[in-house]
Amino acid sequence: MRLITAALMAASVFGATTAHAEMKLTSKDLAAGKAMADAQVFNGFGCSGRNISPELAWSGAPEGTKSFAVMAYDPDAPTGSGWWHWSVFNIPADASKIATGASGDKKLPAGAVEGRTDFGTSGYGGACPPAGDKPHRYQFTVYALKVDKLPLPETAPGAMVGFYVRANTLDKASIEVTYGR
């Protein structure tokens, strides 16, 4: 306990701790801990949703943020590696939201790039767990990044985008929803 206290005091004295607002992610389309609406469910693979990307809004990014990335992931997919449903990167630092349907309507913030989902295409791919599985969790996360741009094309798969995003993350905030059929 004394070592922790001493380390905290030293960090404080030498300016190693920086206070900033806690990063937050909100959505009018996703309610944390609740079931995803049919609007955000995939249309294909046996699912009949509308496949509309959700609205996401964030605040409290730390000082030094040069860009953002958004990723949507299903850790419960029966693949051994989860399922990437959406990745958007190179979102400018002055952006603080993505509108409902921005993926399908190509209304993302200027310069933003959508990576390839595990469905095999770029853009948003909604929830579509196997029929009969317990409801899956869908994690929507915004990342504040310390770089202006990630050196990736729109064909970059979610795992590669995730590697670059995590290597450059200053802070992040998430919303987790569920969906089953």
TrEMBL record:
Record CDD domains: PEBP_bact_arch
Highest taxon, organism lineage: Bacteria
Lineage of producing organism: Bacteria, Pseudomonadati, Pseudomonadota, Alphaproteobacteria, Hyphomicrobiales
Keywords per UniProt: Signal
Protein name in UniProt: Phosphatidylethanolamine-binding protein
Keyword Nucleus: no
Signal found in the keyword field: yes
Signal peptide range: 1-21
